[in-house]
Request: fold
Amino acid sequence: MKDDTRGKPAVIIPLDGSEIAVRAFGAAQAVAKIMGATLHIVHVAEEMLSEKELVERLKIKRIEVRDFSMHQIIGVDVADAILRFTTKVDTKLIVMSSHGWTYNPEYLLGSITTELVQRAINPVMVIRPDIEKLPDPNWKPLKMLVPQDGTPIAAAVMVQVFELAKLMKLDIDVLNIGVIGEKPSAEVGALPPPRYLDYPRYDWPAWATEFIERFYAQRPPEVKLRLFEREGEPAQVMVDFAEENGDDFIALGWHGHLGKGRAKTVKQLLRIAKTPVVLIWSRE
Reply:
């Protein structure tokens, strides 16, 4: 266990001791290694354990990162304790399973994950425990898929996307999705379709030009960026595109609300994604 983590970027993985939660551990280790970050393993409980007891409780079989730190936090409000901890280090990414002890595939997310993704100001990588290819500690993602619509809300998200891409040495596929015959959704958390409704390809050059003018200057020179457009149901289009084009995970901005009638696209993506999903909270 190492505790000299000052000045280093941080990757956080909350673990509750379940076999389900630890399935995200491979991805967390891989990301920490790629970033050159310290991996902070956080466990919230009502009692303190010895280091050996803690490792056994958390079902950790092997740690394959050089810099890591294990933290036991005594508390009752698990999500609040984890979020408080993220403010004490230079958190770049929170990595966690979609569920923990209360795993039920009929539910979109477990209670703690639900609270964290809605409150965290840092990007959160959510990993469904039943996806076919769970990332292991040697996972080396090369590209991430970022759905975009060119609106002002997207500006803050792209700043974080570019930072994540730089830290993880990733290229970016930006995907503009047109939904034919539907009015733009006012739903919080949804991805608004482009300004056209009936002919998605008609306005593509204008959208691409607007995107480049608004965001391209912010792109780190080492990050390659490609623009694409598709039409259809947004979540399914993202999943299909990522599979066809070899994107290792999907990152998208949202407003941080999973309540009834909200975040339709985010919810559907979390249900059907075959890769990790990174949620980036936009406060614009």
The chain has two domains: 9-127, 143-281. The first helix runs from residue 25 to 35.
